[in-house]
Amino acid sequence: MKETYYFSHDCNARNDVKILKLRRKLGMEGYGIYWSIIEMLREDENYTLQIKYIDEIAFSLSVKTDILHSVVHDFELFTIEDEYFYSERLMRSMDKYKELKQQKSVAGKKGMQKRYDNTPKLHI
Predict the structure, then answer these.
(1) Containing H/E element for 49?
(2) Hey, where are the domains in the chain?
(3) Residue 79: which of 49, 42, 39, 40 has the closest Cα?
(4) Per CATH, the architecture of 13-118 is what?
């Protein structure tokens, strides 16, 4: 079964001071671009995107490059390291998600083993 690309989204994210600055300067367009970038980051196995592809990312989102550049660089919403950028908030969220998923997997395997061990064995 294919895993759905999940990530946690705080219901009050629109009120974060950095997001308020973004919305004040770029309006809801900037806010939508921000969440689109977060979704793109989530789709990447390392949760990162390359800075050199800002033009292509802007094209894929049908937005102007300068606006996308502003969202990525001007509001401290993303961390830029070397040629990549990412969201520390998304990274933390995904670490928690992976940990919980692993715990559920281990618990499921233990439960299955317990059921197997308690199944009456037929001796022929």
Answers:
(1) strand 49-50
(2) 13-118
(3) 49
(4) Orthogonal Bundle (1.10)
